[in-house]
Write a structure and sequence with these properties.
There is one protein chain. Helix content is about 40%, strand content about 0%. The protein has 6 helices and 2 strands. It has a two-stranded antiparallel sheet with strand order 1-2.
């Protein structure tokens, strides 16, 4: 059958050490003497290829571009940073997930995605709750009890009290 391999050995198989890789000795568990040979006791290094090819633009390089430009910056000297999207994991019912994927795929305009659909839905929900046209806790409680009849995960998580 062959020599048993540790998870670290499987992860590093076929990789060559590089100057940019990080030493992982402090993260790897200490192997017992039965798990290693004398050749396996040398420190191991993993190659970090996740950032290769990415251009990191620092504020100083951005300033250099702005000062070398012939036109003045639109912010007139203010250091304004635009917000970035943030990732959020949510759980959907199978029919909502299917609808979201189909809706996003069927968009007649390039550049619109499922994330755009979700952001629109959340903005509309926030508007309705803010205007008082929807009572959020009541609506969520009703939905949770309806989903409990078909979604095992909802039952296992527990249900809010009925209002």
């Amino acid at each position: 059958m062959g020599k048993p391999r540790s998870a670290l050995e499987m992860l590093t198989a076929g990789r060559t050490p590089s100057a940019t890789s990080k030493q992982l000795d402090d993260q790897s568990p200490t192997p017992s003497s039965s798990d290693t040979d004398a050749a396996d006791t040398a420190p191991r290094r993993l190659v970090d290829v996740t950032t290769s090819g990415l251009d990191v633009e620092t504020s100083s390089s951005q300033e250099a571009k702005l000062t070398s430009s012939s036109s003045p910056p639109a912010t007139s000297g203010l250091d304004v940073k635009s917000p970035i999207y943030q990732r959020q994991t949510v759980y959907l019912t199978p029919d909502l997930r299917k609808w979201l994927k189909e809706t996003a795929k069927a968009m007649p305009v390039d550049g619109l995605s499922a994330s755009d659909v979700v952001r629109l839905a959340l903005n509309e929900l926030r508007r309705h709750v803010g205007e008082g046209t929807m009572e959020l806790v009541s609506a969520l409680t009703t939905q949770a009890h309806q989903e409990a009849s078909t979604m095992a995960g909802r039952r296992n998580r527990g249900l809010p009290p009925t209002t």
